[in-house]
Amino acid sequence: MEKTEILASMNKIWRDELDNEAITITESSTANDIEEWDSLSNIQLVVATEKLFKIRFNSAEIAQFKNVGEMIDCIKAKIG
Amino acid sequence: MDNILKYIEEKNPAHAAKLNSWIKNMDTDYFSESELFFARYKKFIESTGKKLEYGIDCYLKLCAQMVFERIEFIRFGKYANTSLEEVEKSIYLNPEMFEYHMHGLVFAQFLWKEQYARFNFFSKNIGNYLKPQDKYLEIGGGHALYIVEAMKKGGDANSFQLVDISPSSIQLAQGITEGLNILFLLKNIFDFSPTEKFDFITMGEVIEHVENPLSLLIKVRELLTDSGMAYITTPANAPTLDHIYLFNNATEIRDLLNEAGFEIVIEKTQYAEDVSEERAQKLKVALMYAAFVKPKK
To answer: Which of A70, A75, A27, A72 is nearest to A54 (CA)?
Structure first.
């Protein structure tokens, strides 16, 4: 799966989980860029992403994600 | 409190910002109570050769651990441990883990909004229910915050006892309450004779740690005089390594209190996050439930 495809799927997750159809995330997006993306919703986003891609992030990975791009790299490495 | 928040800001700015967002609106009671409590804790921790910062580091470690517990909770919809045996393996028989957990929770009493809410509810109401000559018992009062407050608000009560099954918790409570006339008992509550009666029992954040909370509540009911009163608190949707019994909402807690033979006199609930009711339910935000209860006639 290409990075652009992963990003497109993640955009859908972010819109659904954060209840905001206007949200658009890019590889450089962080929680600071989106008002609804707080520490609480971050957990929902992580778990929804895991479910969609049928993967599991470990604790260290979750703690180290600095932006959406790093999350995409991790997903790509897991799904091949 | 300022020094504690400054230290947290150095170590975890995002967490400090979250704490400051609600603490900045607190009244003078909050600051005077927290100063007094942390001064007692500081004196104790320094007597053990450690510094206050050690306790704050324990708190930050606890917070980090809880994030992962919450992820697991959202993934699977249940607490990571569901039996006492599992908790013993992961915490109670793991001295390092138990130590940071215990000290971390000391700070949570004033740093977490829902924890302070349950203390404040106790503080504002205990004076109405604790009478002169009453026998007061606290079950599992590791940080001793509540028993000290009960002594302050109901100082004429006859006796104050604190029971815990953990030697480390007893040691912490003894250290924090040095100089106060409290009887400490290292004992299982189920070993109390049914003929022993108390007029007031406080049992905060205990029933979620056992496999069968109903039997524990029935035991508390048994130890209360017919005109007695208890202060019972427990959380719903609050994943931590040592929580076993999952309450999904306040209704389940009320139902269990009722089943154990209690009538709720007054109660208080508080979500751990500043969110709407709808969002709190959707995201399974931790809910603190506290109630003054009396035996049903």
So the answer is: A75
CB contact, 8 Å: A73 with chain B? no
Total domains in chain A come to 1
ipTM: 0.82
- For residue A42, what are the domain limits? 3-79
Nearest CB to A62: which of B18, B71, B285?
B71
Contact B283 A62 (CB under 8 A): no
Chain B environment of A47 (Cβ under 8 Å): 71, 74-75
Domains present along chain B, CATH in parentheses: 2-111 (no CATH), 113-295 (3.40.50.150)
Write out the two tokens for B284. 């399974």
**What are B162-172's pLDDT values in tens digits?**
999 888 889 88
Alpha helices in B77-112 (DSSP H): 84-87, 95-111
Which one of B14, B64, B285 has the shortest CB-CB distance to A40?
B285
Residue-level pLDDT at B157: 67
Task: Give the separation between CA B130 and CA B156, rounded to whole angstroms.
Answer: 9
Check CB contact under 8 Å for A43 and B68.
Answer: no
